[in-house]
Amino acid sequence: xxxxxxxxxxxxxxxxxxxxxxxxxxxxxxxxxxxxxxxxxxxxxxxxxxxxxxxxxxxxxxxxxxxxxxxxxxxxxxxxxxxxxxxxxxxxxxxxxxxxxxxxxxxxxxxxxxxxxxxxxxxxxxxxxxxxxxxxxxxxxxxxxxxxxxxxxxxxxxxxxxxxxxxxxxxxxxxxxxxxxxxxxxxxxxxxxxxxxxxxxxxxxxxxxxxxxxxxxxxxxxxxxxxxxxxxxxxxxxxxxxxxxxxxxxxxxxxxxxxxxxxxxxxxxxxxxxxxxxxxxxxxxxxxxxxxxxxxxxxxxxxxxxxxxxxxxxxxxxxxxxxxxxxxxxxxxxxxxxxxxxxxxxxxxxxxxxxxxxxxxxxxxxxxxxxxxxxxxxxxxxxxxxxxxxxxxxxxxxxx
Length: 400
Known about the structure:
2 domains
């Protein structure tokens, strides 16, 4: 097993401590006398061992504390060195700061009990106040460094926890931002599709008819419809660009479409679909009445866009026949139903992308309503294409 490489700062601390200890030893400066090992060189053994443990204070704190404790005990049987004691205090401190959490909890209690035990033992043995001085010194070189290490470690752990919380908060904020941007992009895509697709579909159908039919009256009528839809589509595109551009608050945002404009919307579809053999009819109680109160703005906008997209799809794909738009309102919900002839039809057709149904489904889901679209049997045995949406009459937050 490869031993961890000592930290550079720990090597400098160990080298400095050893140099100062050798200098004190050279001048004969000791902490005590009359010990078991009276040879002067014996003092160097604990000093060198303690210096070696100082180099491991960060990479192997538990080993440094164990061996350093033995060296400190051995130093008591020699003339002693002040540097050995000072380096031991640093080893105790490092074991709490850099060691495992269990060691950080255990060392202060252990050193505290040792300090108390040494003080009581020397009081019983000597029975004088000098024993209290021994206990104080023991606490200063063992218990006090351990308590200091606990304080430093707690502050470091608190700083690490705060940094982690800040990183998590930043990550959550970035996730919220990405989701908000995605939701706004989807909303813009739905609005752009619903606002412009109706006009472009009519332009595509009538331009194809103008090119394929060699009839001056038909061509003139088609060009008239193309011009009307081009102007209307350009106006709506400019309105959308105006909403997206930062105007600095100089202009007020354009009002969102409401159900009051359905009649005009159906009339426009009637004009665009006349050449395709389509007729349009609007039924239902879409105006506010019966004491139910006004509909929320998002509900009115969603209902308007669903009818608009359904009429656009009818202009693109419906066979000749009647297109019916029906709205039913009660206190709890607004039901929107659009039916159109289902089947192939002669004449030009505009291509579809499938984004319209996706946009309608998303609008209804955001309001917590119900949506379905597809062919259903007609009373006469044929099939019709039906779009049906049920929107809550009161605003509510959709399920997350």
